[in-house]
Request: fold
Amino acid sequence: MLIPLLFIGLGMQNGSVKFADRVLTLIVLIVVAVAIFEAAFLDIYGRIFNPLSFYGNIGGIRESAAMYGGQTLTLNGFRPEGIGRTLLPMVLGVHRTSSTMMEPVSLGNLGVILLAWGLTKPRKEMLQYPVFLLSAALLIVLADSRFGLVMGLVFFIARILPLAVVRRLAPVSPVMILACVLLITLQTSAVSDDILGRVRQSGTALLHFDALMSLGLRGPLPGFGDMGFAYVISRFGIPVCMLLTFGLFLVPMADTRGQWFRAFVVLYIFSNLAISGTSIFALKTAGILWFLFGVLSVGERNAQSAESDRSRLDGIANQNPKSAFFQPGYISAGSTDAGYRMRPP
Reply:
């Protein structure tokens, strides 16, 4: 609950689109470099980062659950036999890259966030600066993120539609996604570890909810691993979930880019809840997502405000160039402009 509030506020107060692009580019360069290093030198990566030991130390998993002796990656760092990779299995084998995210699910989620950010740009800017789209595709493939693959197709289809249509569909998309989960659960009997099986698993748990569980009033609660809707509803209750979702659409977005991003965020969150557990709450990706959301809620207003202050100071200095308070190289008391300083008496 605190992560969205803190990082949206951080984005609104301290961010701008250009600043967010620079920071995100730096993050991408680091993550992609480590991901390529991991794919090429898996043993060395495992000795340096040892994700299995990391999650064992923080209580996320037991190291004794390793599939083989000397394993250093998390349990989902490999595709089990009989399932195998979905993306480029002949090239990358069964290994799923984790990079600095320490496990592949979060790396795939980061790829989806990069897709959302890149696709909100004007089409001309996408072509001129495609680093986010290309990096997203690379990370999704390396992490073998089936969720990322599906969300990429959904985002590209949505981006083709007129914004007016997407803007009308976005508020009802959570209900539509939940309805699809329940419909798939009632109409199929899939139990495999694929997207369809995950959706059915999530829907089956929901069908066993009683009134107290639906209101978030029953305890003690089961973990609901990989069942995001069941996890969220059992913890917060349907009324609170509806209120929080509605709150996303109360945040005014500065321009059309912000409206696109909000629609993608809603699709990302509720689609993830259909097949995953708590990965959308992980700080390593959630912090980035909500910071970008906060940045786009103000757009370039922060930069325009700073430019306006600078112009006003320039105007005052030009009117009274001998003023004791506005001299080039000095800053006046209370001013944030680095080009002026208070002249000492």
Q: What stands out?
A: The two ends are 51 Å apart (CA to CA). Residues 17-40 form the longest helix (24 residues).
